[in-house]
Amino acid sequence: MTDLRLERDFPVTPDRLYVWLTDPAKLLQWWGPEGMTIGEHDLNLTKPGPWLSVMVGDDSGQKFKVSGQVTHVDPPKSVGFTWGWHDDQDQRGPESHVTFSVSETATGARLTIDHRDLDDSEMSASHERGWSSALSKLTAKLN
User: Fold this and answer.
1) Which end of the chain is more exposed for a tag (fewer CB within 10 A), N or C?
2) What pTM was computed for the model?
3) What CA–CA distances, in Å, run from 115 to 62, 85, 93, 98, 141?
4) What region holds the Activator of Hsp90 ATPase homologue 1/2-like C-terminal domain (predicted)?
5) Is 108 in contact with 10 (CB distance < 8 Å)?
6) DSSP type of residue 19
7) Helix, strand, or coil (residue 114)
8) For residue 1, what pLDDT band results from cuts at 50, 70 and 90?
9) Of 138, 128, 108, nearest to 9 (Cα)?
10) Order of all β-strands in the sheet with 2-10
C-alpha cells in the first residue's frame, strides 16, 4: 500500500476553506481534474454517509465513477471519506481513504490532503496528478 500527501496554502480563513471543501455547491466547482466535468453526483461531505461522483472527460466523454462513505466530519478542521473507483460494469474496486485537514497559517489556511492505502506507486502517481489538477481549480477560485 502507498500513501499520498499534498499541501496547499490559501489566502482565506480556515472556516472559508472548509466550506469550499465540504459544501456541495462549492465542492462541485473544483472537484475532479481539469478537463473534467461532474455529471451524476451525490457529493455532500458535510455529513457522514454515502457519496459518489461521475467525472466526464470534456473531450472524450469518457466517464469515471468513484464513490465511498464520509467517515468523519469535524468542522472546520477535517473531513474524511473512503474512495473506490468503479469499473465498466459498475463494480467498485479497492478502497482507499482520503482526509482533508485544514489548519491556520500566518497568511490564511493550509489544506492537507492525505490519500492513504492506494494499491501501488503507479496508482499514487495517478492520484497525485488528479488531486494537483483539482487543487489548481480550487486555487483559481480562492485567489
Assistant:
1) C
2) 0.95
3) 24, 14, 16, 4, 23
4) 12-141
5) yes
6) H
7) strand
8) confident
9) 108
10) 2-10, 108-118, 96-105, 78-85, 63-74, 49-57, 36-42
C-alpha grid cell, residue 74: 469535524
For cell 502517481, the residue is: 125
Element (H, E) at 136: helix 121-142
Residue with cell 458535510: 46
Would you say the C-alpha torsion 2, 32, 137, 21 has a positive or negative sign?
A: negative
Is residue 121 predicted with pLDDT exceeding 90? no
For the beta carbon of residue 75, count every other beta carbon within 10 angstroms.
14
Q: Which residue has the cell 466535468?
A: 37
